[in-house]
Amino acid sequence: MGRVSGAFKAVGRLLAFFVISAVCGALVAGIFMPVAAATWGATNGTVQFFDGLPTELTVTPPARVTQIVAADGSGIATLYSENRTPVNLDQMSPNIKNAIIAIEDYRFYDHGGVDTTGILRAVMANVRGDRQGASTLTQQYVANVLKENSLAQGEDPTVLLNGQKSLGDKLREMKLAIALEKKYSKDDILAGYLNLVFFNTHAYGIQAASQYFFSVDAKDLTLPQAALLAGLVNGPSVYDPTQYPESSVARRNLVLDAMLQHGYISKKDHDAAVATPLQLKINPPHQGCAYATQAQYFCDYVLHQILNDPAYGDTPDARYQNITRNGLTITTTLDPRLQGPAQAQVDATAGANPDKWGTSLVTVQPGTGKVLAMAQNTRMLPGQGLDFVTSYNFNVDKTDANGNDLGGAGGFQPGSSVKPITLTAWLSEGKQTDAIVNAAQRRYPLNHPWRDTCAKVTGAYDDTTVALGTAPDLQNDEPNWYRPMTVREGIYQSINTATFASAAALSDFCDIQRAADALGMRDGAGKNQKLDLSTLGNLLGGMNVSPMTQASAYATFAANGTYCVPWSIATVKDWQGKQLGGQTQQCQPGAIKPDVAKAVTNVLQDVLTKGSGYNIKDDAGKTITLGVPDAAKTGTNQYNSQTWLVGYTKGLATASFFGEALGNPEDHLGRNVMVNGRFWPNIDGAYIAGPQWAYYMQKVLGLYDHGNFDPPPPSLITPGKK
Questions:
Q1: pLDDT value, residue 720
Q2: Cross-strand pairs, 371
Q3: What's the burial of 120, exposed, middle or buried (CB within 10 Å: 0-12/13-18/19+)?
Q4: Which terms are listed as keywords in the entry (predicted)?
Q5: Which residues does 516 contact at the CB level (< 8 Å), separation at least 6?
Q6: Cα 111 from Cα 117, distance rounded (Å)
Q7: Which sign does the torsion angle of CA 47, 48, 50, 56 carry?
Q8: Phi and psi angles of residue 632, each rounded to the nearest 5 degrees, phi first
Q9: Which uninterrupted H or E stretch holds 679?
Q10: What is the mean pLDDT of residues 599-622?
Q11: Is the separation of the CB atoms in 408 and 535 below 8 Å?
């Protein structure tokens, strides 16, 4: 039986020889004698098929790595579908060029794209029962280009081994290879191949492979390193040195044998390289914002904006392909000089954090709207240094104006940090900061005669009608503030009844809404929803606002009334340097009157010198001051679970947040709690968010304008003054 089986195998091989020889003859005829080949009866159909194949190969630029960088060019993160960094041929070690030619196509510089000698040699080897390919490097390059073109078009091509391809596939590759050699030089083809070929799921092209396996550039590959990588392309999984080191070394040595055989290296160099142990120095690339070298959440915010922007593709999938394949350089507004201190400060604020308190800082530049820093005390992945892991960005809205996801947590209750909105409305009507209001009034019943022209005021405070849905009489934090006082004192001491008295004395309650709109105040849920300040509870911060919105609003005061939309993307360029997009500065001078902004600043300076901000103290109980002109306002929600300090110098506006960032603020009270080893009977905006703001601003304020604020006109300060 064994002899019969052997006989059948021999007959099969002989038949295979004649079939392959016929094909080879057809190929030779198709290449060299297309006219005469028409008389070949046996091969006429094959030749006609060959003649009908295309000769043009569109070489789509291979997928490249996209870089997100800070304003100074320093890296933030990389994104890619294929980790590839193309380099010129002269940036590759001669060892890798020689090794790949020796093992894959030693007649590379002698053939015209298809090696008929190699084909006949492969035929004879296959007849003997030895599997041997005949594809030249040019053919392999063609196969890789076709695959890359399919990927670039969003297709998912099946990657077939040469032996699994149909005759038609092989003939197509051969004809394209012949045409390619007429168009490009051998060195161009070799460089293209080495930049395109797959080495590992983490490494496409020789530069990425060199970095991944050996942590060196392609130009610095040693002989044994180059031989290992050249051997790898034949079977990236079979010869993976991280999984199969013995097979990898055996394959490497086979490459070295081929290099010796074909005269690329001496016997001495061969033997030394064979004796070299496998010495990997794996340098795994990390892509995506979760592996950002700085500003994880800022990176994520930038990425969301680009994925949401039709300027980068008609569909979300097209935009994703653009980002992960086209080697973009996304230059942002981030200032690493601020980002480092911001991240260090938020990490230190809560320290060990079993109760999962959230902390964040975001800085916007007044007069430009540039987002300069964005940090929070969480990480995107476990094992990155903190035990608080979330993908949500504390600093930004949940969605953009069109309802597209921005990755934000949706904002937090700002408490008294929104009281400057009512102050802005007060001053916009020409009233003075030092005018007296009746902060003793605590009751604003259902029928209170609010003067409004744009909307019906809703809500009421009245102990006697709680059963009808009103809130109890207004409360202040302490009992001794129910008395007449100046509007200024009401702000710097953060007196709720003074804010309501100011609102009640306005000529038009709707001026509060107009002030909020001018300051860019929006609901943290996104969709560009305005804060509804016709609801009385919102005068004291009952809605959700993102820290970025707060920082931008306060930046308007610092810029003497110029509101700027916050922006984070300076330019987006493709791999050739062509600009594809970016955001532009959008500022509105006079969004609020300059004199009004100056007067607001004048009042908010008192917050830090004699008001609620005076409680910003270090662990020793000493008040923390910046030593330069600054202004701020604290904020605390009714549960003491979401707290703020939003403040500014002339050149930097920063929102500092501490509190419950992801859950229900009612369920995580900021009372009788331990934070960073210290017990707090209750948390206030000045207690934790305040020092976080002050310590951070101390470190960075000198990098931007920190001069004097412009003084307000006396007519907005003292009643009767002009």
A1: 81
A2: 364
A3: middle
A4: Carboxypeptidase, Glycosyltransferase, Hydrolase, Multifunctional enzyme, Protease, Transferase
A5: 421, 530, 531, 533
A6: 9
A7: positive
A8: -165, 170
A9: strand 678-682
A10: 94
A11: no
Both tokens assigned to 565:
């939309």
Rounded to the nearest integer, the mean pLDDT of the chain is 90
CB 511 within 8 A of CB 425: yes
For residues 393 and 329, give the distance between their C-alpha atoms in angstroms, rounded to a whole number: 23
Q: How far apart are CA 426 and CA 722, in angstroms?
A: 17
pLDDT of the residue at 2:
47
φ, ψ (nearest 5 deg) of residue 542: -85, -10
Amino acid at 187: D
What is the rounded distance in angstroms from the CA atom of residue 321 to the CA atom of residue 154?
8
Put residue 313 in one of left, alpha, beta given phi > 0 → left and psi -120 to 50 → alpha: left
* Interval 541-581: pLDDT, tens: 999 999 999 999 999 999 999 999 999 999 999 999 999 99
Q: Helix, strand or coil for residue 275?
A: helix
pLDDT at 189: 95
Looking at 284-388, list the stretches that DSSP marks H as alpha helix, in order from N- to C-terminal side.
296-307, 316-325, 336-350
CA distances from 340 to 73, 346, 631 (A): 15, 10, 23
The pLDDT of residue 170 is: 79
DSSP state of 277: P
Nearest to 162 by CA among 142, 176, 187, 148: 142
Q: How far apart are the first and last CA of the chain?
A: 119
Contacts of 658 (CB under 8 A, 6+ apart): 349, 350, 357, 358, 359, 643, 644, 683, 688, 689, 692
What pLDDT digit, counting tens, does each position of 420-465 carry? 999 999 999 999 999 999 999 999 999 999 999 988 899 999 999 9
134, pLDDT greater than 80: no
Residue 4 has pLDDT above 60, yes or no: no
Amino acid letter, residue 716? L
What counts of helices (H) and strands (E) characterise the chain? 21, 18
Nearest-angstrom CA–CA distance, 529 and 547: 16
- Tokens 């297309």, located at residue: 34
Alpha helix (H) residue ranges in 351-495: 419-428, 487-492
476-519 pLDDT, tens digit per residue, is 988 989 999 999 999 999 999 999 999 999 999 999 999 999 99
Q: Is the dihedral of CA 184, 185, 188, 190 positive or negative?
A: positive
Instruction: Measure CA 263 to chain center.
Output: 49
In whole angstroms, give the CA distance from residue 137 to residue 114.
9
Query: What pLDDT is attached to residue 121?
Result: 64
Joined together, the tokens standing for residue 9 give: 């195998």
CA distances from 223 to 248, 276, 675 (A): 15, 10, 58
* In contact, 276 and 245? CB cutoff 8 Å: no
Q: How many residues does the chain have?
A: 722
Rounded distance, CA 154 to CA 247, Å? Answer: 35
- Distance separating alpha carbons of residues 659 and 439, to the nearest angstrom: 29
Q: Are 562 and 368 in contact, with CB atoms under 8 Å apart?
A: no
pLDDT number for residue 80: 95
Nearest to 684 by CA among 639, 631, 643: 643
| Residue 551, amino acid | A
Q: How far apart are CA 202 and CA 291, in angstroms?
A: 15
Distance, in Å, from the CA atom of 125 to the CA atom of 117, rounded to the nearest integer, reads 12
pLDDT at position 386 is 85
